[in-house]
Design a protein that fits this description.
Blueprint lengths: L12 H14 L17 H15 L1 E2 L2 H6 L3 H10 L9 E2 L12
């Protein structure tokens, strides 16, 4: 986990939610927005759990590769915040509600 001082108290709500979700899934209370998901122990199985929760809570599609390769959770949150709503990227917001593909889980 990243031990450098972080601005966790002032990070955007989306970042806080992503950090909380990853902390819960990985059972690591000290994760920060500056941490890399894979570097703190995230793998494909825990990544799928995180992606499911993000999709359920925020209606976003994120590729597993993007989650595992993101420089930090803050960078991932920034990608989500800046993603087009038309689905032209692997990270995007749904226009209406939560829509799950058959067999997602």
């Amino acid at each position: 986990m990243n031990t450098t001082p972080s601005t966790d108290a002032s990070i955007a709500p989306l970042r806080q939610h992503i950090v909380s979700i990853c902390s819960e899934v990985l059972q690591l209370p000290d994760i920060t927005a500056d941490d890399n998901f894979a570097a703190v122990g995230g793998d494909s199985l825990s990544g799928v759990r995180v992606l499911y929760i993000l999709k359920e809570c925020f209606g976003v599609d994120i590729s597993l590769a993007r989650l595992l390769e993101a420089e930090s959770l803050a960078a991932l949150a920034q990608d989500i915040e800046n993603a087009p709503a038309d689905g032209s990227d692997t990270t995007h917001h749904h226009d209406r509600g939560v829509q799950f593909e058959e067999g997602f889980v």
